[in-house]
Structure formats: structure tokens, C-alpha cells
Specification:
One of its GO terms (molecular function) is GTP binding. The protein is of the alpha/beta class and 184 residues long. It has 5 helices and 6 strands, in the order H-E-H-E-E-E-H-E-H-E-H. Bound molecules: guanosine-5'-triphosphate (GTP) and magnesium ion.
Length: 184
């Protein structure tokens, strides 16, 4: 009694404690660009270099919640595993180049493996499809069908993001925050 330390369970503490999320997806899918859109705003992004291993940055949402974003290199492979522990949300990015593009079987399998990781058992997943609206919509429907069984019982969502759209980037963050707040 009387040490002056709080239990750590009060609302202000939990609001300021950053929630850890992973930003994953293939190389050049747009992960770092999305992180910079959240952190600095799209208009300030001059160029983005391919990520070596990972970037980590804290962002603050419109409602002042802090999120610790681990932006992992698309070629991270097995080095991803040490990042899983303590993850409160996963954003999986996909870039759709041409109309009619679809997800290769290999990527579908690696997404399924990630969803089934024990450390991510109760972790929400947000899929973000970047590309023109028509192509993204097709990929979004296709992916939903292909992953439905694996995602059974999980909290997840899927949304599309157009290039150079701060509005879309902000919306992704809003949806992510809503998913995270359902867990906390
Ligand atoms: N205009 C526009 N370009 C984007 C967007 N997202 C990504 N790009 C471009 O796509 C390329 C790859 O983006 P990155 O953010 O580096 O992709 P990444 O997923 O972080 O790639 P790795 O770090 O190699 O895994 C860059 O040239 C970006 O400028 C976007 O929302 N709008
Ligand atoms: Mg990157």
C-alpha cells in the first residue's frame, strides 16, 4: 500500500500504451508507403526505398491511440516469427497491378499459414488491397472466398485502397483502430 504506483489498469494508461501491429505482405505491396501516409501524410512522401528487414514506428490515431507499427520487409521469410509475440493486429497488404490479377496459390498458402500461427490465434486481421477500384474489388471477393474457411471464428476485415489517397489510408487506420479496440 502507498507506493504511489498505479495498478496500470486505469483508462489513461491503457490509452497511452501502444498497441503492437504487424504490417506484412509481398515486396512492393505498399507497406512502407502506407506507414508513411499514417505517420507523415501522403503529400510529404518523396520516395520509398525497399525495406531491409523491418521498420518500426509509433503512430497516433485521430482519437489519440498510439500504435506501434512493425513494417516488415516483403522478403522477411522465416525471420518473421520473432515478431509475432504480443501482436495485437495484423495488416496484410496486397498490390493489384492489372485488371484480372489474382492471388497466386503460393501467396494464398503463406497467408493461411500466418492466420494459423499460434501466436496470432486471437489476433484480428485486416487485408488491404491496393490498386484501381475495379481490380481491387475482384481480388477482394476472390480472397474472401479463398480464405473464408481459414478465417472462421476470427475477427477480420478486408478493404481496398487507391494510390495517393490519404482518405483511404486514414480509413484503413480507422478500421484497424476499431478492430483493436474490440480486443482491448
Ligand atoms: N502512389 C502510390 N504509390 C504507392 C503506394 N503504395 C506504394 N506505392 C509505391 O509502390 C512502391 C513500393 O512501395 P513500398 O511501400 O516500398 O512497398 P513495401 O511493401 O514496403 O515493399 P518492401 O519494403 O520491399 O517489402 C513504391 O515505389 C511506392 O512509391 C500508394 O498508396 N500510392
Ligand atoms: Mg517497405
Amino acid at each position: 500500500m502507498g507506493t504511489g504506483c498505479s495498478t496500470g489498469l486505469s483508462a489513461p494508461w491503457s490509452n497511452s500504451y501502444p498497441l503492437k501491429i504487424l504490417l506484412v505482405g509481398k515486396q512492393s505491396s505498399g507497406k512502407t508507403f502506407l506507414l508513411y501516409s499514417w505517420k507523415y501524410g501522403i503529400d510529404t512522401i518523396m520516395s520509398v526505398e525497399p525495406t531491409k528487414h523491418f521498420n518500426v514506428d509509433t503512430i497516433t490515431t485521430a482519437s489519440e491511440r498510439k500504435i506501434l507499427v512493425y513494417d516488415l520487409a516483403g522478403n522477411i521469410g522465416y525471420r518473421l516469427r520473432p515478431f509475432l509475440d504480443g501482436t495485437e493486429g495484423v495488416v496484410y497488404m496486397i498490390h493489384v497491378g492489372e485488371p484480372g490479377d489474382s492471388i497466386f496459390k503460393e501467396e494464398e498458402e503463406s497467408i493461411k499459414q500466418l492466420i494459423l500461427e499460434r501466436d496470432l490465434e486471437s489476433t484480428p486481421f485486416l487485408f488491404v488491397i491496393r490498386g484501381d477500384p475495379e481490380s481491387s474489388k475482384g481480388v477482394s471477393q476472390d480472397l474472401t472466398e479463398r480464405l473464408q474457411a481459414t478465417l472462421e471464428g476470427k475477427q477480420w476485415d478486408i478493404m481496398c485502397l487507391q494510390d495517393y489517397s490519404q482518405e483511404d489510408a486514414d480509413l484503413v487506420l480507422q478500421v484497424l483502430e476499431k478492430m483493436l479496440s474490440r480486443r482491448t
